[in-house]
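thoughts on these tokens:
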Amino acid sequence: MSASLVHAPEADPRPLLGEPLPLDLLNTRWIDDGGTHDLLERPGGLAIWLSSAGLVDVAPDSQETLGALLATRTALHAIVAGEGGDPELSREMLNDTLGHGRIRRVLGRTGPETAVETDTPGWLAAWRCAELYLRLLEEGPDRIRKCASPVCVLHFYDTSKNGGRRWCSMTSCGNRAKTRRHYERHQGGPARA
């Protein structure tokens, strides 16, 4: 009698979790005191991200999924951060991802149903990221933000009532900024890094 062991992915090590899917994909790259990190480049990183994003049961942990996500992340980064050179090329890259899927509406037994179809299962996670990015643009493009810390690369969707969120996290970047301002006020000059 043999049993196959299924290993649960490691805990997600990223400092900011729970953002909408396209921003969560962007946040697979981050910087901390230990340096620059890329979750999707580390062994098992794709499985960790799929699990954290709630996609483990619908998108395979495969090279095709990884390639589609990396291409989509590159396009999203160029569009959101404005650091991709040619904006038209960035839009084409995101539209390429969107071209791998579609939403199909059908009348089911209990009423209208919506089904997402992609060319292959490997494109599903990337397509969902791209499609949800379009929804965020429709709902509140000004609420898609980069953390105000100049050394932080994380992005978030501001859901605060007044739209005044500035930091990826008050417990990290926000507190560092407050501490720096306090030091500057009391020491009469800029804080040293």
